[in-house]
Amino acid sequence: MTAFRRLLTFIVLVIAVPAVAQDARTERVRFDAGAEVATFHDTIIGEETVSYQVEGTADQLMVVLLNPSNASTYFNIYAPGSGPGDEALYAGAVDGTAYQGTLAVSGDYTVEVFLMRNAARRGDRTDYRLDIGLSGGAEEEQTASTDFADGLAGGPDFWEVDVSGTLNIRSEPSTDASIIVAVPGGTVLRNLGCQEAGGRTWCEVAEPDAGGVRGWTAGDFLVESAYVETEQTDALVAGTSYNATGTILCAPSRDAPSADCEFGVIRTGNGSGTVDVQLPGGGVRTITFDNGEAVSSDADADLSFGRNGDTMIINIGEEHYEMPDAVIFGG
Fold it and tell me: What sections of 29-95 are H helices per DSSP?
């Protein structure tokens, strides 16, 4: 640690550590049989603190994730033989609310959750979820590196959620993004690709069922799944070449009011296919999808898209489309 970083850490800790550790609680971290992650849901108010003590061994990989309702909530990690008031092994107020590292020595590590001093003195409240994970020694860690979602390209078709409690699926690859749903350990999720964001790996996932929930989650708690998708036949709408028809909201320009526009979709599976949309002023716009994302159209204009929950917002030049995931995935 450089001299400047030590000084920065000291300044932040002076602000971050409560002046008086009132109502300090201690919780012993215990893992369910066969589990590597323990999940806690708790609340602290004002200068309350909670210290989670977890026994670790040298060379184990330790992961700590904090998802608080109050942005002034952080955690510090203390090495065996030290605790609140000593120099922290990891200072959340400096380094953020996600930690991953290999333990240097064996013993009881302390994860202390607290509110920053200014928030504590105001008597602020925070509701939080804390995940603490430990995975085996050097030999096991080497094996796990090929299973966890630690790569940004390729990977398996499906992940399995590897937690003892639940895992948050968020609207964006960030712990600040809204939670769409929390899924239990063992849930199978479709792999839509991973990326680095905020110093960690985030993976875009979707429930295997057509039209299922889609969002982002931390790759730390995903392992390759042996799930095999059963091929299904998507029937055609009678008298058409489409697998489904209906209406979506669209507009000829971004400033014009949206109206119901008829569509027909030809699905090729896994969120791929084409959608024909009847334009308000006449004509048809064909939009091509791959793996649940709009990739091109028959218009001589740039295509861009974003998301609003389970609806894809597509702009093609001045044209505007609101396409629910169920259109291309089915359901």
Answer: 92-95
Q: Give, in degrees to the nearest 5, the angle at Cα 72 between 66 and 73.
A: 30
Long-range contacts of 135-140 (CB under 8 A, 24+ apart): 135/36, 135/60, 135/61, 135/63, 136/60, 136/61, 137/57, 137/58, 137/59, 137/60, 138/59
Q: In this structure, are residues 326 and 245 in contact, taking their beta carbons and an 8 Å threshold?
A: no
In whole angstroms, give the CA distance from residue 296 to residue 227: 30
The amino acid occupying position 327 is V
Q: Which of 321, 39, 255, 7 is nearest to 164 (CA)?
A: 39
Looking at 162-300, list the stretches that DSSP marks H as alpha helix, in order from N- to C-terminal side.
none
At 195-247, the pLDDT tens digits run 887 778 888 888 876 556 888 998 888 988 887 665 555 677 887 888 889 99
Measured distance CA(217)–CA(195) in Å, rounded: 11
Residue the block writes with tokens 């028809």: 245
Q: For the whole prediction, is pTM greater than 0.70?
A: no
Of 115, 131, 119, which Cα lies nearest the Cα of 50?
115
Interior angle at CA 137, CA 52 and CA 50, nearest 5: 5
Q: How far apart are CA 193 and CA 178, in angstroms?
A: 20
Half-sphere exposure of 173 (CA within 13 A, CB side): 17
